Amino acid sequence: MKRNFIKLFSGLAIVGFSALTVSCSDDDTPGDQGENPNPPSETERWFTVAGGIMDETPGNGNGGTVIYSVSKEDIEDPNHEIRLFENGYQVRSQRTARLQASEDGSTMFNIAYGGDSGGEFSKYLVEGGDEFVPTGGVVNISQYAGTAPRWVKLFDGDQTGVAMNVTSPQVTTDDDGNYLYTRGTATAITIDLQDALISNNNDFEVPLSEEEEAQGFHIFRLDTPVLNEAGDKIIIGTWMRKTDPSTGENDTNDFERLGSKAIVLDYPSLENPQVITSTLGHGDTSGYRSFNSFLAEDGNIYQATQRDPNGSYILRINSDNEYDNSYDFSLDSALGVQGAYVESWRYVGNNIAYVMYRHDGSAPSNFNDGGSSQSFLARVDLSAMTAENVDLPYDADMYFQQYQGFAVYEGNVYVSISSVGQDGHVYIIDAETGEATEGAQLINEPGNHFVGVF
């Protein structure tokens, strides 16, 4: 497999609260500093396909991430072949990278996940094929967010990325050794995507109620922040866990979960953390590898749940930055299944979204030691609270758990559809009707899988 590795810079960025210096190698070309020597025409729009490479276990993506870009004409041509794993460009990341794209597809953003480069932010100009030109240097946020930070791009015109981290929660007892609570220290970081520097960061604790903490509940992970309509708050998803107060160890028994929670921070200061709670959902709201909350045109934020004992819900947060507990949207009810689990989803406009999910009874997959099950894609109407599957060539080994990229362009949604280790196609879906049309061929390799179109 051909893998093109980006040039390593001679020094990592030195970052602080007020300034950032980036050190680059002496042989950088003008293009490396942000000038695109072969800019696309005004009518051109690059689409970047991403894939996860296996290490020793098919479908785990722990061998890194490759990307490859094609034109709109090519991605919509069912006779065009995209040999991503043969010809693609390997981005900086030991495991599956956390990728984001500019709204026009001309720039890719990445924070490496794990390994020696974990926590390094990189930015690339998209020039077609395997040509991705590093620009703006490398920004290392690992000292704030660790080597495996969670992050997304805010929907603010490609201006800001937000990374989140929570240190390993620690148990606190009183002087007599009696359990009090478990807490970690959270870190929020904003990244200026245009100038490639850290613009702000803040550390804080997020205590739950005294009663909740006495039972051992605590925030294990934060992820997928979204900016509210007023632009003065970000809403951050949470992953909750529970300590057994009698042992001080992680509670692995069945227990009654709390209502779904999110953290509200003032923006851009990243201060004044507040906890909000849904009485409808009882799952986590942190997502996994992609966006999990979206601001719609109606001014509300819509957020999915995971690990919900009643199946995933779509929750609504109103303009007062509180959960709207009158909005009761159960995906189990809408899809007619049990145990729906939102793996990845994307809001596409006009209160329509596309949701990748699995459910109880999904066919067991033949990879990953049998620990995975078949995924599906549904068109969801957030106003009517309805959902129906998109007509696709489903297969037991179709796996969307690590899916990240839905390209939305000119009323269409572009998704990569294939089973682990099998060839597939890009599908172009009419956002309003859900009708799917077969696009370019995706040529796969054993154990690998496609994780998005950007």
UniProtKB/TrEMBL annotation:
It comes from the Bacteria. Residues 1-24 form the signal peptide. Keywords: Signal. This is Lipoprotein. It comes from Zunongwangia atlantica 22II14-10F7.
